[in-house]
Write a structure and sequence with these properties.
With 313 residues, this protein is an alpha+beta fold. The chain contains 14 helices and five strands. Bound molecules: fe (ii) ion (2 copies).
Length: 313
């Protein structure tokens, strides 16, 4: 979306049976996804009014703002007050902040159903963004921060996974499943001693054995939260499996690894490489993809990796 592409308008212009010389857009919550409510020249019906009553703000495209001003002046005898342009930066900041808060709560209290429900909203919002043609993939990538915390890492992985899923032509319902698996892939880490999770440098064998339990812990938590979708649960459980069978927990090979788990696992590696940690600098996307292609070709599904490379191009 371009900076300031949409400008807020006065809701009082809305009336049943009216058609406007400009398209009307809305955001359901503050600064979130912008959707078209009514096309230019099409009559507003009662259903539209019911919907509009529920939404937070209405907007017009900047290119049609003068038509809105003329309409307003003709009906109210004065110019409308100047609406605020919704900026891209505002939008992504708010979206990331909401997502980060929701995930923080979930990781602190992973068994609380309301926290899980909030995380579902995050997935929906991310899926909406991915499906929004104006919201270019590059813009979505800007949301990803490069500091590594389990909850922000989970949001980043979801963004990459959903972008790739969309690039691969997944349906909205598949994106919702993939996004959920990606967002919750490391939820099981909330059950592991934070000293191990946050340890700088390599883990001892015992510590690593403990760490390896996080995919299964994640599935147990998911089941407790009422997740029944097998594909989502598999995405969580198998995100550390590798194509050559050297991964965990089950040592699955190649096509035994479900596609959501492959995508989440690959995006997991990508985010770890492109994030800054106290003991290492962040790689650029290009460096990370190159390293994945040259040094991890036995672990990652190369067909998917090539698609990811194409997506970044
Ligand atoms: Fe993990
Ligand atoms: Fe992860």
């Amino acid at each position: 979306m371009q900076e300031g592409k949409y400008i807020s308008i006065d809701k009082s212009i809305i009336a049943e049976g009216c058609a406007y010389d400009f398209a009307i857009y809305c955001s359901i919550r503050e600064n979130t996804q912008i959707k078209q409510v009514k096309q230019k020249g099409v009559l507003l019906e009662n259903n539209d009014l019911l919907f509009i009553n529920k939404v937070k703000n209405l907007y017009v495209d900047r290119s049609e703002h003068s038509s809105y001003e003329q309409f307003y002046e003709a009906h109210f005898g004065k110019k409308p007050s100047v609406g605020n342009p919704i900026t891209f930066t505002q939008k992504i900041d708010t979206m990331y902040k909401n997502a980060s808060n929701a995930l923080n709560e979930l990781f602190n209290n992973p068994e609380k159903l309301s926290n899980y429900k909030e995380s579902k909203k995050v997935v929906n919002e991310l899926v909406d963004s991915v499906l929004d043609e104006d919201f270019a993939i590059k813009s979505l990538m800007q949301i990803a921060t490069h500091d590594y915390y389990t909850h922000t890492h989970s949001i980043n992985v979801s963004i990459y996974a959903l972008s790739l899923g969309n690039f691969l032509g997944f349906k909205a319902s598949e994106l919702a499943e993939l996004g959920e698996a990606a967002l919750l892939h490391d939820l099981g880490k909330s059950k592991i001693d934070s000293k191990i999770i946050n340890k700088n440098g390599s883990l001892t064998k015992d510590e690593f054995d403990t760490m390896k339990k996080h995919p299964s812990f994640g599935v147990s938590l998911g089941l407790k939260l009422g997740i029944k979708n097998k594909k989502v649960l598999e995405g969580i459980k198998y995100h550390h499996e590798k194509m050559d069978g050297s991964g965990y927990p089950n040592g699955l090979y190649n096509e035994e690894i479900p596609i959501y788990a492959k995508i989440v696992g690959m995006c997991d590696i990508f985010d770890a490489l492109t994030s800054e940690r106290s003991y290492k600098k962040a790689m650029t996307s290009f460096e990370a993809l190159k390293l994945m292609k040259t040094e991890m070709s036995k672990h990652i599904d190369l067909k998917l990796l090539n698609q990811m490379i194409l997506m970044f191009k």
